[in-house]
Q: What sequence folds into this?
């Protein structure tokens, strides 16, 4: 698959039509009408309209492009420990997906050219999942990551980011993206797991200073660099300090 740089000349023409927009692709001269409340909408607490999945699909169609998805990184059924307000440790699985969306043009000779790409992530800890269990939400989470990647790619290829923003119905996932994605790549503990380590020590009267000294004795100069594979062993060692 070949890469193709997207130039400003590919920017779509958007014309206001009552409450809607008519978007015309300069590549195909095909026009599509984006409907307010269906293809785009203003999310509560924001001023700029957000492009929704149906609208992104219409833009991609107007450009005559195909959509390819690929999972760049993922966490599936990883047990995450948190401390609730009562100081009790809660264990629950998490599913996380970082997806790449490529918008592809197929040439007459069959060669595929990437016109644009976008990334989207989602995880089962997002508030949108409500009371659903992570297992019930895993498939929907993958689809949400794909949707977010598609919207970003559609905005990129059309040059309409000044008119529409990416769907921000829930920004909390963005705050967790770097942490979760870096944990996948590096194999180190997440920020929440780091907090769990200090909370476990505090519950048995171990100060942060003393804990850091103990961690260094155990071979960990930085709590952020503790491998995922060592988290249970570290917690057991901390709990054993209570007996001392």
A:
């Amino acid at each position: 698959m070949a890469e193709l740089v997207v130039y400003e000349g590919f920017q779509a023409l958007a014309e206001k039509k009552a409450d809607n927009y008519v978007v015309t692709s300069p590549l195909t001269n095909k026009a599509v009408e984006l409907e307010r409340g269906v293809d785009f909408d203003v999310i509560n607490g924001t001023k700029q309209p957000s492009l929704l999945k149906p609208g992104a699909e219409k833009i991609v169609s107007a450009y005559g492009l195909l959509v390819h998805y690929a999972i760049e990184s993922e966490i599936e059924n990883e047990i995450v420990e948190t401390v609730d307000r009562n100081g009790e440790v809660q264990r629950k699985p998490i599913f996380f997906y970082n997806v790449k969306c490529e918008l592809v043009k197929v040439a007459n000779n069959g060669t595929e050219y990437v016109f644009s790409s976008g990334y989207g992530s989602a995880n089962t800890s997002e508030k949108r999942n409500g009371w659903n269990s992570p297992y019930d939400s895993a498939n929907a989470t993958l689809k949400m990551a794909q949707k977010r990647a598609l919207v970003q790619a559609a905005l990129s290829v059309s040059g309409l980011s000044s008119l529409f923003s990416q769907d921000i119905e829930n920004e909390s996932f963005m705050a967790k993206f770097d942490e979760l994605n870096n944990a996948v790549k590096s194999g180190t503990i997440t920020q929440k797991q780091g907090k769990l380590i200090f909370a476990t020590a505090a519950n048995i009267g171990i100060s942060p200073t003393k804990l850091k000294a103990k961690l260094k004795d155990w071979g960990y100069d930085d709590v952020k660099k503790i491998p995922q594979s060592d988290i249970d062993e570290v917690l057991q060692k901390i709990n054993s300090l209570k007996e001392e």
